[in-house]
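Hi R.,

Here's the chain you asked about this morning:
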Amino acid sequence: MALYEHIFLARQDITAQQVDALVEQYKGVIESFGGNVGRIENWGLKSLTYRIKKNRKAHYALMDIDAPAAAIHEIERQMRINEDVLRYMTIAVEAHEEGPSAMLQKRDRDDRPRRDGDRPDRGDRGPRDGAPREDRPRRPREDRA
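And the predicted structure, written out as tokens:
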């Protein structure tokens, strides 16, 4: 059997419980074909870059699948029919990743400036107090009448 990563986007107006029910439905289809589902990640409701079928947001769900190709064809067929599923994508992989996916990993915030004023050195860009720099003469402004 082959290894796959399958992600789908569900409509914004369904609940998280309905998304979980969809995941369980497709998990049952895969298991009926002799496959199994490993990691299941629900990424929650996220904004879309552009509208899809008049939706600005969607529920994202990721599944790691170990199943025959017939099982993948069947869940994709059922997703095409289901009006709650906006988009789906299945990718064949060599091995499943261990641990949480990139969407769920916490980002390392130590190297990014924070909003509380603890900013890194500004270098040679000068102060930001609005005062003119002394090393450059200012030219007088022409009044436009």
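The first helix runs from residue 16 to 32.

Let me know if you need anything else.
M.
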